[in-house]
Amino acid sequence: MGHFFATLPSRQCIIASMPNTDPAKKTASPPVRGRPREFDVAAISEVVAHVFWARGYRGTSLDEICKATGLMRGSLYGAFGDKHGMLLAAIEHYSDGSIAQLAARLNSSEPADQSLRAALLHYTRSASALEGLDGCFIVNTTLEMMPEDTQLHARIESFMSRTLTLLTAAVIRGQSEGVFNSTLNEKTVGDFLLCMIQGLRVFGKMVHEESRLTAIVDMSMAAIAKR
Fold first, then answer.
1. Helix, strand or coil, per DSSP, at residue 93
2. Helix (H) or strand (E) holding 56
């Protein structure tokens, strides 16, 4: 996923709280000429994300996007440029929501080990509930991504980097609180947790038993616990 593993916080870094943005307030800027857009770009991006999530980028037609959003092609083109622009907006919208949720869980007032376990258990619950659905939107898009798609690559890389930064900061906090093994390299543990989360998302497409996924989380927590 590029070079994002090299850009991690030092042990002295403190993760700032994520801004509490309200997606409902994100509306498209009116065009220079013609009638202003009268739809919420964030809300439309979420609908588009679900369409791509269910069918994949190549398997999704513009007619399906129009039907799902209730918008004409011209309106969609005016807001996003083209189908690829719709995918980029959908990925960005999905990423921002996922990062905000993870930050809120990790930055709770509970001890670091409890907040991290709760955050990881969220992925087991969502993975075990994916029966009949199509896995993780980010994972699916990553697997479908063409190597030359630099714009999409940059957005997915940014998502992974932001996730990794939050996880590494949680490890640093746990080590300072004395609940995680202080001899472990916090960046390596962050990489391990990121890989574990992504693995849960893939494994959860085949295994829908939450107890099995929870056992993986507990094993991971035991691996980084204070000795």
1. helix
2. none
Q: How far apart are CA 43 and CA 69, in angstroms?
A: 9
- pLDDT one-digit tens code per residue, 87-113: 999 999 999 999 999 999 999 999 999
**Closest Cα to residue 125, out of 214, 205, 203?**
214
CA distance 88 to 45: 9
On whether the CB atoms of residues 138 and 94 are closer than 8 A, the answer is yes
Among the ranges given (62-66, 138-142, 165-169), the one the predictor scored with the smallest mean pLDDT:
138-142
pLDDT for position 26: 41
40 contacts: CB under 8 Å, gap ≥ 6 = 23, 24, 26, 27, 28
Which residue has tokens 């691996």? 223
Tell me the C-alpha to C-alpha distance, in Å, between residue 175 and each of 73, 132, 217, 227: 52, 39, 18, 11
CA nearest neighbour of 108 among 116, 120, 96: 116
Give the predicted TM-score (pTM) of the model: 0.78
75: which 2 tokens? 């309106």
For residues 58 and 39, the answer to whether their CB atoms sit within 8 Å is no
CA distance 165 to 1: 15
Residue 225: CB atoms within 10 A of its CB come to 12
